[in-house]
Write a structure and sequence with these properties.
alpha+beta, five-stranded antiparallel beta sheet, single chain, 98 residues, rod-shaped
Length: 98
């Protein structure tokens, strides 16, 4: 009789499984592109307001290239001394942070 209880306990013990939960991680990757389509324009086509704003803000700056997008926003490739960078401006000469 002891063997019957012992074997029943072993069988029932082996049938049970331990419930384990694995943490579910959802990784959501969002890619936002803020790069607009700019087309290169001639430096002569650059509005005078932008050139004046640049001379006020950076007197030693030299515009190497200018670009314009569909929203009439301008991207300027500028060199100041040995530093090269980009500036963004509206047609009225106000600076845009991008």
């Amino acid at each position: 009789m002891k063997n019957l209880f012992l074997s029943a306990a072993i069988v029932l013990g082996s049938l049970t499984s331990f419930a384990s939960t694995t943490p579910i991680t959802n990784t959501i990757v969002k890619t936002i592109s803020i790069e607009d389509e700019y087309t290169e324009i001639k430096l002569e086509e650059l509005p005078a307001a932008i050139a004046e704003s640049l001379k006020k803000a950076y007197p030693d700056a030299v515009i190497t290239k200018a670009y314009k997008n569909e929203k009439a926003e301008y991207k300027l490739d500028v060199t100041v001394g040995d530093k090269v960078g980009n500036l963004f401006a509206n047609a009225d000469g106000s600076w845009i942070k991008k």
